[in-house]
Amino acid sequence: MATSAAPVHDEADPYPLSQVYPLGSRINDRGHLEIGGCDTVELAAQFGTPAFIVAEEDLRARARVYRDGLAALHHDSDVLFASKAFPCTAVYRLLAQEGLACDVASGGELALALAGGFEPARIYLHGNAKSEAELQQALAAGVGHIVLDSADDITRLERVAAAAGRTQEVLLRVTPDVAGDTHAAISTGQADSKFGFGIAQARAAIDLVADAPHLRLVGLHCHIGSQLLALEPFTRAIEALASLGSFEVYNLGGGLGVPYLEHQEAPSISSYLTALTDAARTALPSARRLLVEPGRSLVANSTVTLYTVQTVKRNVSTWVAVDGGMSDNLRPMLYGARYEAALANRMRSAGKGELCQLAGKHCESGDVIVRDVRLPDPRPGDLVVTPATGAYGHAMANNYNGVPRPPVVFCAGGDARLVVRRETYADLVSRDV
Ligand code: LLP
Predict the structure, then answer these.
(1) Are residues 156 and 46 in the same domain?
(2) Among 162, 225, 261, 382, whose Cα sits 20 to 30 Å from the Cα of 199?
(3) Are 173 and 286 members of one domain?
(4) pLDDT of 1 above 70
(5) What's the 392 CA to ligand 1 centre distance in angstroms?
(6) What value does the mean pLDDT of the chain take?
(7) Domain range for 348
(8) Which residue has the CA at smallest separation from atom 7 of ligand 1?
(9) Does 12 map to a domain?
(10) Ligand 1 pocket test target in 84, 173, 251, 394 with most atoms within 8 Å of CB
């Protein structure tokens, strides 16, 4: 299997799909998009729109490339699913089945990871503002490792662990002062960051942990940012960790970028893992155990969103408005993220037609899902697909304008199963007291 995103299609295919669709996607005889062997027009009829459609085999394939790839390069290793990218019980369950470990960034994600079947010992708790209750919850659950992020975190966890009569294994998050080329909102490796300890502060933090009788420091963690399309910042970050002494465990974070557009190039998972392990071998000779923590590169390309066109309006531009928007995909609005879009019911014309603004249904002008996308004669009732929405789509979905959040549907071998139902209006008032 190609380790970058690449749907499987044959060479002679006159209508090849963009690389950003899930593995195994194709255009069927009716000219409809098929995901996991399921016709998306039928999925829309059965489950409604908007909907997140997940190709289960794509998720499994990428998990295996990560797991087997890292194990082949470094014997003592583990791949942690950075679950903030797609915190859905069925996704946790699938990736636990595939043998991954799990990164959680809150008590809520911890509860989901446990519900999804992750062994507590293989869960890592992160967070720059963990509460006492979250730390108590992690200890009670028997979480394997807690990643310490501040001096307050150290003293608070020491107190909680002492009260519980436990010794907790911990990692220390280090901010190596390496910034990758990505949107400022998702860059975390720079010195002036709310995350972790700068190199200058890390030594004192290491001493503080050493003096805490109920904490056992096993290693360092660093995560420099997300959607990084170059490998060099990762290797620089690893080199920066070397100045802090020798540790047994290094968690090298996540951050590998993915292609969102047909011609966008991203490093393959295997070249990323090779770069990390090469750099670690040279710069961190004491590293017995290596961990990586991918979110986006595991899940982004596994999923597409289906929408139905509601209106087409022509003024200066052609505005094609669908039944979702910033309530199911905030990424274009928050990070200027670009997506592809096509009519899933007329895929043979993908990339052709009039230049359109694909807009959402929300009450603000910024609610544009894809700007300047060609759609072939779009009409109300057409089915729009935006691929590569598996990462941080469901995760950041919200109820703006009282819009119920979409369902999640898993597809494999021509069978579709609902794993998260659509929210209802009753759900919208279910917390009222
Ligand atoms: N580890 C840590 C400690 C993290 O903070 C993150 C992501 C990851 C791993 C996984 O990073 P990934 O492999 O997914 O790049 N909402 C933003 C992304 C925020 C990333 C937060 N941390 C977006 O939609 O682009």
Answers:
(1) no
(2) 162
(3) yes
(4) no
(5) 9
(6) 96
(7) 26-56+300-428
(8) 226
(9) no
(10) 84
10 domain-assigned: no
Q: Distance (Å, rounded) from C-alpha 92 to C-alpha 112?
A: 8
Same domain, 290 and 314: no
Mean pLDDT of 301-330: 98
In whole angstroms, give the CA distance from residue 255 to residue 253.
7
The best mutation among 223, 338, 392 to test binding of ligand 1, ranked by most ligand atoms within 8 Å of the C-beta, falls on 223
The question of whether 102 is a catalytic residue gets the answer no
pLDDT above 70 for 6: no
pLDDT over 60 (residue 3): no
Are β-strands 38-39 and 51-55 bridged in parallel, bridged antiparallel, or unpaired? unpaired
> 190, 199 in Cβ contact below 8 A?
no
Given a contact cutoff of 8 angstroms between Cβ atoms, the answer to whether 212 and 154 are in contact is yes
How many structural domains is the chain composed of? 2
The minimum-distance atom of ligand 1 relative to the CA of 188 is: 5
Closest Cα to atom 9 of ligand 1:
254
Gap between the Cα atoms of 296 and 186, Å rounded: 12
Confidence of residue 12 (pLDDT cuts 50, 70, 90): low
Residues flanking ligand 1, CB < 6 Å? 82, 84-85, 103, 126, 186, 223, 226-227, 253-256, 293-297, 331, 335, 391-392
Q: Where would I find the beta strands (DSSP E) of 123-198?
A: 123-125, 145-148, 168-175, 197-198
The structure's pTM equals 0.96
Distance CA 238, CA 80 (A): 18
